[in-house]
Amino acid sequence: MGTIDMNHPQRVWVSRPLFPEVVAKLAEHFEVLAESEDQRRSPEQLRAKLAEVDGALLGLADRVDAAVLAGNRRLKAIANLGVGYNNLDIDALNAAGIVATNTPDVLTESVADYAWALLLAAARRVSAAERWLRAGHWQGMRFDDWLSVDVHGKALGILGMGRIGQAVARRAAGFGMAVSYHNRRPLPAELEQACRARYVDKPTLLRESDHLVLVLPFTPENRHAIGAPELAAMKPTAVLVNIARGGIVDDAALAAALREGRLGAAGLDVFEGEPAVHADLLKLDNVVLSPHIASATADTRRAMASLAADNLIAALGRGPRAGRPPTPINPAVLAK
Asked: Residue 275: which CATH number?
């Protein structure tokens, strides 16, 4: 990480609208350039913005790679507004001596709540039933109308057992569910006991789960971790929930499985190429779709923004944690 001149008036850029109190917190330490509207920027536009500042608070739509950083001698820190950071080329940031941070922990419980909202809505056909009612079709009730699948007492599978996966598992106790999970490695025994979960291999997880929640990070290895072969291995009545990242699921293969009755239902908050959504998914009634809002409660979003600001302040050598941001992604840069 380059030397910070404390006498130099540092400037930071906030790439998307934020809560006024968070911008004010940054303004106590820096000259702040804060955007008032969300917008997509080309790599050239992003490069120009970052060339003018010492630090930046970015959203997941801001993709920073070696080309965007080319020629930049000023930028010292990026605070990413989210847990995931596949929008950042960490190798390129390391090479440039730029520290990066994210916002874990503060959104864990809200995202876990939303996973259950999607699971219940998809399993019980809530969205389709509401659309049918709003369209004026409800003229009476037949005993076999709107049959769906139970959640209580069923087998819950979790692919990816980090903080959010564990929070999803803890909630399953109230539904009397048997919980299985697959992860790169098993959890310590005390965490497994707290989650009432057992470790299984991925084929077993796919085969046994009545409801499968995806909570794994996006990496090149995890791209299409759920594709046509995996979908074929699942129960035809199973419900799939993705609150992780777009690209973990092959959306085209998922749409085909849902359309052809080879999978019961799905609840999706993330998509390949978002904000675009695969056209075939939009045609289906057995999928619940939402626009990447799992962390979107007022309390959680404020906490995320505040943590991102604290990270940026500390990474740029200001405040009580100067030089020690709370949640760095690449702490080796700080050591340099």
From this structure: 3.40.50.720
What are 189-199's pLDDT values in tens digits?
999 999 999 99
Calpha distance 233→124 (Å, rounded): 22
| CA–CA gap between residue 109 and residue 166 (Å, rounded) | 10
Residue type (1 letter), 234: M
| pLDDT tens string 149-181 | 999 999 999 999 999 999 999 999 999 999 999
pTM: 0.90
- Give the per-residue pLDDT at 4: 52
Same domain? For 74 and 199 the reply is no
Looking at the fold, whether 155 and 68 belong to one and the same domain comes out as no
Tens-digit pLDDT profile for residues 246-257: 999 999 999 999
DSSP labels, 273-336: TTTS--HHHHT-SSEEE--S-TT--HHHHHHHHHHHHHHHHHHTT-STTTT--SSBS-HHHHH-
Residues with a catalytic annotation lie at: 245, 274, 292
Structure tokens at 26: 């940054």
Name the 3-class secondary structure at 231.
helix
Say how many domains are in the chain.
2
Residue 141 is assigned to a structural domain of this protein: yes
